[in-house]
Structure formats: C-alpha cells, structure tokens
C-alpha cells in the first residue's frame, strides 16, 4: 500500500565551482517526481542543498584568495539560483555549514560510536583529493590514478584517524540490497551487491585538524574533524530536523513515509552502502530507494573546463527560458543511462517539439476555439492517466514526457485528418463538435504537463478556460 508521505532528496553538490548540467538533470528529474506525487495527493517533502566542507573546497578557496566562509557563501548562492531558474519546488535547502547540521552530524557520530562502530588507528594509504577519500588498489588504474579523477595525483598519506566498522555490516547490507526496490535501475543494484560480496573495508571518517581545519569537529577530540562524506551524508535526515524533530518532519517523512534519494551512477558506494551502514549503526530506518542517473557528456566527451565543453544550466536558461531547459533534460536525457548533450541538440529539440510542436498545436486549436466557440467546452473532471502515472511510478520521467508528446502528435494528426477549419464552413454543428473535442484533448495534455512544464501547463489551462488564443507564441522559434 502506498504511503501518504513522500520524501525525495537530491545529492548535495560540492561548492567548488558553478552549477553544471549534470546536477541540473538530477534536480529537475527530482522536481518532476515531487510534483507528480503532490499531484496524486501525497504529502511531499523535497530537499536539496550544498556540501561545503572538505579539502577540495578548502584548496579551491585558498586558490581563489577568498575567505573560506565568503567562498562557500558565494557558490551556495549560485546553486540556490537553480530554484527560480529551473522552477524547482524544493521545500528546503540544506547547507552543511548550517548550525543545525553540525549538531546532527555530531549526533550521528555519537550514535555510531555508542554502537561500537568507531575506532582510532594510524593509517597509510593512497588519497584522492577529488573523491575526498582513501583508495585501495582496485580503485586505481594501471597508472596508479583514480578512475574518477585521472588528472589528479593520488597522494600517499599517513595519518591517525577514526574509522567506521564498515566490514561489520556486510551481511546486513546484503539483506538490505536483496530487496529489488532499493535501487533503480536494477543493474545498479547488482553493482552494489557485487561490491559488498567482494568484501568491505573499514573506512576513515576523520582527518587531522592540523592538516584540514575546515570541517565538523569530532565530538570529544579537538585534534580531528569529520571526513566530509560522513558529515555530508547526514544531510538527508538533518534537513528534516533530525534528531530533535521539532516540526515532526523526520517522523512524518522519513520514519512513516516513502524515502527516495536521487544520485549519479558514481555514488553507489556512498549512498547505498556507506550511508546505509551508518543508518544501521545509528539505529535509523534505511532509505527505501535510491535512483541513479547516468552522466552527461558533450560531443561524446566528458565535460571539462580544459575542453571548453562545460554547459552551465543558468546560461541555458538565459538563452531559452526555464521550461525549454526542463523539457530537454526530462525528455532528451535518459533517466538511467549516459546521454550526450550539446547546445545544437538543445536548439533542434526546442524548435521541433516546443516551437513547432506543442506551441504551434496550441495556437491552432485555441485560434479556432476563440473564433468559433462561444465559450470553453465542458472539461471532464477526471481523465484516465493510469498509463502516464505508471511511468512516474517507475521513476521513468523520460517515458512520461514521451507519452505527452505522443498525445501531441496524435492530436496534430487528428487535425490534419479531420480538417475542422474546413468542416466548420460546411457544417457549423459538426465543426464546433470537432473543435470542442480538440480543446478537451488539449486540456488533457495541459494536465499531463503539470509535473514537467508547470508554467506552460497553467498557461494552457487558463487560455482554454478563457477561450482565448495566445497573445504571443508560447515558444518562439530559434534560428
């Protein structure tokens, strides 16, 4: 039975650079899912935010010459711009520098410590600044470089740190991962299972303050700060007010609701293994489901500043507007696999499917309605959207968007076949009947657009009810 409360959260990106299109994909997909669940009557809590601690950020701030606090404030504000730029309906924006989050991270530490899962030891290992983590040999390529950050030098570090007894949770994690619904897509769940079966090693959860001062202090040890991932992962419940839960959000949405996290495919180890083991240790319910999306490439190459192919979503919004960017990310980027994105592809999709597609269709129908109908025809109170809703239930927002544009194509062909603009001149009764049918079907499309293009959905519904054609094109063609 579906729970009445639905909690969804993105990962929280590092604030060491401007927002990029990969995170825009994640936050827009999450927003569409949040809007869908509100649409079907569920209580929804949607969280996003920024991860502001760690060596990578400290080094970036030092390189920029800015005070660390000013640096993280600046980039956190850039990510906050995505809310208005992409019409994101998040309920909260968590920063790991928030005072409440500090307290929550320290409470998570205390609970794991009480469970006997934290111990201190000296350690020598390979450390990747890009990942903010130590690496084993299987994490490195034949040249001794991190697979995820081959351009960064892996450092040899010797430190005395606190460790988390990750190995203790091997069997519990396998039982957790045995449930098919805990990870989407299925092949990512299989990756997680194989990772656990290959053996888990305890991982470091602190850094020496003398080397890295920027972080949450370790309770009871002023010489250490928390490892950025241990701190950051706690955001998924600190954003709900845990542990005090003064407003009851943690109880309503985490304990009693359906919990969903969205993340990139490189996050499996952190989101579905390390974080879940931490929750087990702290005696907190595990995440119900983590949905992993693929990477975005540009021109079939990984995005990088050196190649000059990085796409900033805020720049795209300035060029096209919020909803065309949402449209492209939701329909033309695969929800689970890697996808290639270029500005040429965005423009092509915009012209074909928004300007010439939805926009042109709406203009034709509403022009006919305004000219030949006295008022808006009766709109059915309910429509059978079971097939459409089913795609959202499977977290396949691309399939949902495809279904809308199938409806648009069907309606366009219906106009071509029936030619209501000719029929109305021969038979007013038959012509008005055809046009009324077109208007009702356009309203159905407007309803379906609600989670995807919320502003366009509202605009179309209002125009239909007012029986007016658009004063200007919904989407201006781009040459």
TrEMBL record:
<dbReference type="InterPro" id="IPR009080">
    <property type="entry name" value="tRNAsynth_Ia_anticodon-bd"/>
</dbReference>
<dbReference type="InterPro" id="IPR014758">
    <property type="entry name" value="Met-tRNA_synth"/>
</dbReference>
<keyword id="KW-0547">Nucleotide-binding</keyword>
<dbReference type="InterPro" id="IPR023457">
    <property type="entry name" value="Met-tRNA_synth_2"/>
</dbReference>
<keyword id="KW-0067">ATP-binding</keyword>
<feature type="domain" description="Methionyl/Leucyl tRNA synthetase">
    <location>
        <begin position="7"/>
        <end position="140"/>
    </location>
</feature>
<dbReference type="GO" id="GO:0004825">
    <property type="term" value="F:methionine-tRNA ligase activity"/>
</dbReference>
<feature type="domain" description="Methionyl/Leucyl tRNA synthetase">
    <location>
        <begin position="157"/>
        <end position="365"/>
    </location>
</feature>
<keyword id="KW-0648">Protein biosynthesis</keyword>
<dbReference type="Pfam" id="PF09334">
    <property type="entry name" value="tRNA-synt_1g"/>
</dbReference>
<protein>
    <recommendedName>
        <fullName>Methionine--tRNA ligase</fullName>
        <ecNumber>6.1.1.10</ecNumber>
    </recommendedName>
</protein>
<dbReference type="InterPro" id="IPR015413">
    <property type="entry name" value="Methionyl/Leucyl_tRNA_Synth"/>
</dbReference>
<comment type="similarity">
    <text>Belongs to the class-I aminoacyl-tRNA synthetase family.</text>
</comment>
<dbReference type="GO" id="GO:0006431">
    <property type="term" value="P:methionyl-tRNA aminoacylation"/>
</dbReference>
<dbReference type="GO" id="GO:0005524">
    <property type="term" value="F:ATP binding"/>
</dbReference>
<keyword id="KW-0436">Ligase</keyword>
<dbReference type="InterPro" id="IPR014729">
    <property type="entry name" value="Rossmann-like_a/b/a_fold"/>
</dbReference>
<keyword id="KW-0030">Aminoacyl-tRNA synthetase</keyword>
<dbReference type="InterPro" id="IPR033911">
    <property type="entry name" value="MetRS_core"/>
</dbReference>
<comment type="function">
    <text>Is required not only for elongation of protein synthesis but also for the initiation of all mRNA translation through initiator tRNA(fMet) aminoacylation.</text>
</comment>
């Amino acid at each position: 039975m579906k729970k009445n409360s639905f909690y969804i959260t993105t990962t929280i990106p590092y604030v060491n650079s401007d927002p990029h299109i990969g995170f825009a994909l994640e936050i827009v997909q999450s927003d569409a899912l949040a809007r869908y669940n509100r649409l079907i009557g569920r209580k929804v809590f949607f969280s996003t935010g920024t991860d502001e601690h760690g060596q990578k950020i400290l080094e970036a701030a030092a390189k920029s010459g800015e005070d660390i606090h000013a640096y993280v404030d600046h980039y956190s504000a850039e990510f906050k711009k995505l809310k208005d730029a992409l019409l994101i309906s998040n309920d909260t924006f968590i920063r790991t520098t928030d005072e409440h989050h500090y307290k929550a991270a320290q409470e998570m530490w205390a609970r794991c410590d009480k469970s006997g899962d934290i111990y201190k030891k000296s350690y020598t290992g390979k450390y990747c600044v890009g990942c903010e983590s130590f690496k084993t040999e299987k994490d490195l390529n034949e040249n001794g470089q991190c697979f995820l950050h081959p351009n960064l030098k892996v450092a040899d570090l010797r430190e005395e740190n606190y460790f988390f007894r990750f190995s203790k949770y091997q069997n519990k994690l396998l039982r957790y991962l045995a449930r098919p619904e805990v990870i989407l897509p299925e092949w990512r769940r299989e990756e997680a299972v194989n990772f656990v079966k290959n053996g888990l090693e305890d991982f470091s959860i602190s850094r020496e303050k003398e080397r890295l001062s920027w972080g949450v202090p370790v309770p009871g040890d002023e010489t250490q700060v928390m490892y950025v991932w241990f701190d950051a992962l706690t955001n998924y419940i600190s954003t709900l007010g845990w542990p005090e839960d003064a407003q009851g959000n943690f109880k309503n949405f985490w304990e009693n609701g359906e919990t969903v996290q969205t993340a990139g495919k490189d996050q499996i180890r952190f989101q579905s293994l390390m974080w879940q083991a931490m929750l087990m240790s702290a005696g907190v319910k595990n995440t119900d489901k983590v949905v992993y999306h693929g990477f975005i490439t540009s021109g079939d190459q990984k995005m990088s500043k050196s190649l000059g192919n990085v796409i900033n979503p805020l720049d795209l919004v300035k060029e096209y507007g919020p909803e065309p960017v949402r449209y492209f990310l939701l329909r033309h980027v695969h929800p689970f696999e890697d996808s290639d994105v270029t500005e040429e592809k965005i423009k092509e999709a915009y012209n074909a499917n928004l300007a010439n597609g939805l926009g042109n269709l709406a203009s034709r129908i509403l022009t006919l309605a305004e000219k030949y109908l006295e008022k808006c025809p009766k709109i059915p109170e309910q429509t059978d959207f079971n097939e459409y809703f089913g795609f959202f239930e499977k977290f396949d927002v691309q399939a949902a968007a495809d279904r809308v544009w199938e409806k648009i194509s069907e309606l366009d062909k219906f106009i071509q076949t029936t030619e209501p603009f000719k029929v109305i001149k021969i038979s007013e009764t038959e012509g008005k009947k055809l046009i009324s049918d077109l208007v009702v079907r356009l309203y159905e499309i407007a309803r379906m657009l609600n989670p995807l293009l919320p502003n366009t959905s509202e605009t179309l519904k209002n125009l239909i009810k007012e029986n007016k054609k658009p004063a200007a094109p919904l989407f201006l063609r781009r040459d």
